[in-house]
Amino acid sequence: MDIRQMQYLIEVARLKSFTKAADALFITQPTISKTIKSMEEELGVILFDRIGKKVELTDAGLLIVAQAQQIVASFQNLTAELDDLRNLKKGHIRIGLPPMVGSSFFPKVIGQFHQRYPEITIQLFEDGAKKVEADVVDGLLEVGVAVLPTLQEGLSSFPFVEEKLNLVVHPSHPLAEREQVELPELARDDFVLFRQDFTLHDRIIAECAKAGFQPHIIYESSQWDLISEMVAVGLGITLLPESICREISDKRVRIMPLVNPVIPWKLGIIWREDRYLSFATREWIRFTREVFTPSEGTDNPAHGSHGKKSHQ
């Protein structure tokens, strides 16, 4: 079993799909299927339980993937250190982004970074913040974006945006004309939220519990535009960060501040504090810190005219 095979195995386990793993690795699905079958024959165990179009790791698969992740991470560290010794300003960075973060904050930043470092390639993985954190800890990603404070241990970070959650309702909602709304007033509403792999999902439920009620969730999604559309057709209410609310131009919804309590939404760049960082990763961290924390009195180029400075 070689490094390439381990990488295939890890990607199938991460995406729970041979087809999706093949797409992510830019190889054919038969190639990856043949590789996994060869590994199973070599090891004498079944690595995946095929359930329809999805696959799940067997007990043996879980054990082998855990070891493979450590081996691949060590190999990548070795490669990165050798590249640095050769002083090659090249590299590849795997970055995890929650879907609602990518379009709002990162297109301009990635473009600016590419202009400065054209030889560094970037691969983006869209997952909920909880999954991004776990993948950074496991070494599947070099860096990621997560809601601070992080849930996982062993991570370094710096914040780049601090916002609050706003309430989004249909214009016919009894509270639609209010200037602000208190959270306990929403106890009888139907909620449309992000999925459970998003930190915001747990944060909202926890705040509702503190306010004395359990939110009635009728729908969950990974896409903020779909969530706002559900509200626009009158299926429920939602709570979204200020930057996302600025992206919503739909006049079929009303947006207002949420108070008592104010629910903060603080984002940060995260990375493993005990892992060797390649030149490319170190430059990404340095560059994004520079871009997201401009000098006083200047606009943040990553956010456009409504950018918000981070507080450190």
TrEMBL record:
Entries under SUPFAM superfamilies matching the protein: Periplasmic binding protein-like II, Winged helix' DNA-binding domain
Its family?
A: Belongs to the LysR transcriptional regulatory family.
Looking up PROSITE patterns in the UniProt record yields: HTH_LYSR
Looking at the keywords, is Transcription regulation present?
yes
Family matches, as CDD domains: PBP2_CidR
Q: What is this protein called?
A: LysR family transcriptional regulator
Please report the stretch or stretches of sequence annotated as the HTH lysR-type domain. 1-58
Q: Which UniProt keywords apply?
A: DNA-binding, Transcription, Transcription regulation
